[in-house]
Amino acid sequence: MSEHWVGVDVGGTKVLAVRIDEAGDVEATATRPMPGRAAGAEAVEEAVALAARDVYGARPPRALGVSAAGLVDADGERFLFGAHLPWRDTPLRRRLAERTGRPVVVDNDANCAAHAELLAGAARGVRSALLITIGTGIGGAVVLDGRVVRGAHGLAGEFGHVQVVPDGLACECGLRGCWEQYCSGRALERVTRVALGRHLDGPEVTALALAGDEVALQSFASIGTWLGVGAAGLVSAFDPELVVVGGGVSAVGDLLLGPARTAMRGSLQGTAYRPVPELVPARLGPEAGAIGAALLARDGRS
Amino acid sequence: MSEHWVGVDVGGTKVLAVRIDEAGDVEATATRPMPGRAAGAEAVEEAVALAARDVYGARPPRALGVSAAGLVDADGERFLFGAHLPWRDTPLRRRLAERTGRPVVVDNDANCAAHAELLAGAARGVRSALLITIGTGIGGAVVLDGRVVRGAHGLAGEFGHVQVVPDGLACECGLRGCWEQYCSGRALERVTRVALGRHLDGPEVTALALAGDEVALQSFASIGTWLGVGAAGLVSAFDPELVVVGGGVSAVGDLLLGPARTAMRGSLQGTAYRPVPELVPARLGPEAGAIGAALLARDGRS
What we know:
The structure is a homodimer. By secondary structure, chain A is α/β, with parallel strands linked by helices. The first copy, chain A, has helices at 41-54, 92-100, 109-120, 185-196, 202-210, 214-238, 254-266, 288-299; strands spanning 5-10, 14-20, 26-33, 64-68, 71-72, 79-81, 88-90, 104-108, 129-134, 138-144, 147-148, 242-246, 278-281. Chains A, B: This is ROK family protein. Chains A, B: It holds the Pfam family ROK. Chains A, B: InterPro entries: ATPase_NBD, ROK, ROK_cs.
């Protein structure tokens, strides 16, 4: 009988599980609501286990991969800190392995998505790339020499909390002016609320934008411009071949990426004299994190 | 007879040459004024050749390394763009080899300084580090796995033109709000001029600060704080073991690095849960670029 693996992505608003086969193809998906940071670690761990079980099928997977938005230590044992998640220096791998009775691999959500995009998505065959995932917040990953760079302590690619506005908007992480305050699902909702005078959630703003609504288009132009400005800074620092943009908010496509491309080019020095990398959508969509977690469970965490 | 090599660093205000022996020790140094961007390419190339000749000693060096502030292409043939330098997509390596009659190696100034600090300075034995050089502007280099990372097109580490203030101060590169407008020798002079109502150059501000002058100390605190804020963003992105700060402005030591350390820690998310890298002075001082260029001439450009 063929083997399978399960990947679970723990985001700010939902817990998404996928099951993949030996070839990496997705066989099943399931979604559970994210109980939220305030619900505490136990509740979120139970949601992870339940979402995973939703896609087990006839029998448990060989191993389980978990993708989570925040700082994971270099060997994947501990979840150190995430603004939207309840864990603080928690031995998450062991806790989830005990709860599920399966071998577990834990990694940062953007590292998982980058692994998936590298193996099977927009960055296939690329030697150096940046991955920027826009969901509730911003995640990031760096690919150099065809591999995800972990950094000295496993924390490379934490782009969301780079300051882009001095004394700017307060962030859940405790700082001010973080990039994800200006470019994220929450930023999209805030910008829209300010313009409309009432609250719409991200999918509602996306639907309006796709229908041509001016306010919604303007909201995407705002966060897209901030995407491009921030991406330009990262391009100056890393000089990648390619910038890949994923995460739920990127599902709107060029309504976000068009303004981002314009702003990225406009915020890079010497563009008449230097190559400007392409900025392209992630190919695996909002499931990239979960798929990458499952692939890491299959391949082992490098 | 023993061999020697010459390195020349072309900065915004001066051209500095050093001669090294086979062990990498400095045997002679010389300085010429930088004619300035407006003087044109020929004039600056002549200054490079003259500064080099000042340290030839009894006979020409085996090879010449040139360190310059700006974008150098991946194979070190062309100088693409630098805000303070006259060259635009210029085949600089060939031109200088023809002018001097010696084999020439060209690299970005911060890459040169990083090479020197890695081999013989503050980053000796370190696997991952960021080098930030503060002179007329800001240069940068990234070390991963014990080697200087070049990026897809040889342009990695261009930190100076990352935007830190939206719609901020106009920069010579044509953009606004670039980091080096807030943290550089020119920023030091501007901040001091605003406070004092008259112009002092960088070395004068440094002398005053070392003598305890309040205005000068405040100027260094300002650019040091911006150093820390920008460094925090880079630490979030790269997660290095160490941040090394070099360049002429860093000669003032802790008067700059103290405020930078405070601001870096204050601008990093989750510092209660993550390691914060040390921020240390470069060990080779303002000559690091020239020494690194000479070492690259000796070792070959990787």
